[in-house]
Amino acid sequence: MKKASLITLVLFCHLLVSAQTIKNSNHYTEGYIKSNGTIENSNHASIGYFKTDGSITDRNHRTIGYIKADGRIQNRNHQTIGYVKKDGRVEDSNHSTLGYIKNKGQIADKNNRTIGYAQEINPVQAAVRFFFFDNLTENK
Question: Please, which residues have CB within 8 angstroms of residue 2's CB and are 6 or more apart in sequence?
């Protein structure tokens, strides 16, 4: 399964602060999610959007995926590419564990190694970024 682009919008997530931070395992800031759903890279350039309908778009507003209320993650063709389970487990489309959402926004891989942090944001968004939409951190 191919990793895709950055963070994700959880359909019922209400962002409470103006910019939420995504950091890698070395605590280097990789991006931000603004309260209006704009996804920015570490230089604050807009690279995508989380829409209120659950869709995720690139900076040109082309749909690249979806987050469904039941935890399914879908690509632009509505094919399920993974799941974020209520217990924090992140799975691929074959239900193999990719990693975990842990306490305090820590994101871990399947071997429990920390791969990133979600500060002041919904950790599901961060998990979707790390496991499914990783290329959104690139300034394309």
Answer: none
At 55, give phi and psi (nearest 5°): -80, 155
Paired tokens of 43: 């230089």
- Total of domains in the chain: 1
Residue 120 φ/ψ, nearest 5 degrees: 60, 25
Backbone angles phi and psi of 130, in degrees to 5: -70, -35
Give the pLDDT confidence of 93-138 residue by residue, as tens digits: 999 998 888 877 788 889 999 888 876 666 666 666 666 666 554 4
pTM over 0.85: no
pLDDT in the model for residue 15: 30
The b-or-e profile of 78-99 (16+ CB within 10 A means b, else e) is eeebbbbeeebbbbbeeeeebb
Domain annotation covers residue 85 = yes
* Tens digits of residue pLDDT in 15-35: 323 457 888 888 888 888 887
On whether residue 86 sits in a domain, the answer given is yes
Q: Nearest CA to 135 among 7, 38, 46?
A: 7
